[in-house]
Design brief:
- Keywords: Membrane, Transmembrane, Transmembrane helix.
- This protein has 297 residues and is mostly helical.
- It has a domain of 189 residues.
- It contains 10 helices and 4 strands, in the order αββαααααααββαα.
- The relative contact order is 0.10.
Length: 297
C-alpha cells in the first residue's frame, strides 16, 4: 500500500516535469521569434558592419539545407537564439516551482494535508497510517495529470508565436523595414557633450599658432591689487617683464652671509708625534734616521 501512494505521487511528478519543459520550450520559441522580428525590422544586420572583426564575413553566402543564407542573417539568428535562451532561463529560474503534492492538494481540497502526511509516513506501518494511506489512494483516483497543465499560459505563448510568424511573413513578402539602423548611433554618440571635441574651443588658436587667451595676463600685469596680511597691506602687483612672481615689499635687517677667509698656513710638513710613539723602542732611532735621510734626498 505504501508503494502505491509513492507510485501515484511519482506519476504526477513526472507529468508535471513534462509540462514545465513544454512551458520552457513555448517561452523560448515565442521570445526567439519576437527578438528576430525586431532585429529584422530595425536593420540589426548592420550591427556587424560596425565591428572590424566581422568585416571579412559580411556579405558572404552559405548554403544550408539548399538555401543560400547571408552571414548577417545567420548572425541575427544566432544572436536572437542566445538572447532568448538567456531570458527564458532567467524567467523560469525565478518562477515559483510547486511539486505534484502541492498541485494536487491545491486543486483537490479533500486531499489537503492528508496526501502530504500519507506520503511522508509511507514507510511507517501501523493501523493509523494504513488507514490514512488507504483513504488517500481512494480519494486520489479522480486526480488526472492533465489538470496540472496551464492552458492559459500555453495559449498566450501560442498567440505570440502566431503573431510573430505573421509579421515575419509580411516582412519577407513585402521587404518592409524601418529607417532605423545601428549605424545611426555613431552620429548620436559624436553629439554627446562628453564625447565631442568641445575642449578645443576653450583656447582658440590664432593664425600664427598661438592662443588668443591674453585676458588673464592683462589682469595680472594691470591694476595693482592689495591684500591685507596680518594687518599689513601687501602689494601683489607683478611689474611687466619680471618673472619672479609674488615678492613681499617689507624691509628687514640684512644678514651678512659673505665668506670669511682664513689665515695663511705654513706649507712646510710637520711630523706627527703620534707616529713616532707607535714605533718599537729598539728600532725607533734607526727608522727615524732612515726616513729623515729619504726626506733630505
Amino acid at each position: 500500500m505504501a508503494l502505491s501512494i509513492e507510485e501515484i505521487v511519482n506519476k504526477h511528478e513526472l507529468a508535471l516535469k513534462k509540462y514545465r519543459g513544454l512551458y520552457a520550450f513555448a517561452d523560448l520559441l515565442a521570445t526567439y521569434l519576437v527578438l528576430y522580428v525586431l532585429f529584422v525590422l530595425f536593420n540589426m544586420r548592420d550591427l556587424f558592419l560596425m565591428f572590424s572583426i566581422f568585416e571579412p564575413y559580411t556579405g558572404a553566402r552559405y548554403n544550408i539545407l539548399g538555401f543560400g543564407i547571408v552571414f548577417e542573417t545567420l548572425g541575427l539568428i544566432f544572436l536572437a537564439f542566445v538572447l532568448s535562451l538567456i531570458f527564458t532561463a532567467i524567467r523560469h529560474y525565478r518562477a515559483e516551482k510547486k511539486d505534484a503534492i502541492a498541485f494536487i492538494e491545491e486543486t483537490h481540497p479533500v486531499l489537503k494535508e492528508r496526501l502530504r502526511t500519507a506520503y511522508d509516513n509511507r514507510s511507517t506501518d501501523n493501523i493509523i497510517v494504513r488507514d490514512l494511506i488507504g483513504g488517500v489512494i481512494i480519494d486520489s483516483k479522480p486526480v488526472q495529470s492533465s489538470s496540472f497543465l496551464d492552458r492559459r499560459k500555453l495559449a498566450k505563448d501560442l498567440f505570440v508565436i502566431v503573431f510573430a510568424v505573421s509579421v515575419l511573413a509580411y516582412v519577407a513578402g513585402t521587404g518592409y523595414q524601418t529607417t532605423f539602423s545601428p549605424t545611426d548611433l555613431n552620429g548620436v554618440i559624436d553629439k554627446l557633450p562628453l564625447v565631442s571635441n568641445s575642449n578645443s574651443e576653450l583656447y582658440p588658436v590664432d593664425e600664427n599658432g598661438g592662443t588668443s587667451n591674453n585676458t588673464s595676463q592683462e589682469e595680472i600685469l594691470g591694476k595693482p591689487a592689495v591684500v591685507v596680511v596680518e594687518g599689513k597691506e601687501v602689494d601683489l602687483k607683478i611689474p611687466p617683464g619680471t618673472g619672479q612672481g609674488f615678492t613681499s615689499q617689507e624691509t628687514g635687517e640684512q644678514t651678512n652671509e659673505s665668506f670669511t677667509q682664513s689665515g695663511l698656513v705654513n706649507p712646510e710638513a710637520a711630523a706627527s708625534q703620534a707616529y713616532y710613539d707607535n714605533l718599537p723602542e729598539g728600532y725607533r732611532n734607526v727608522i727615524q734616521s732612515y726616513f729623515e735621510g729619504l726626506a733630505e734626498e
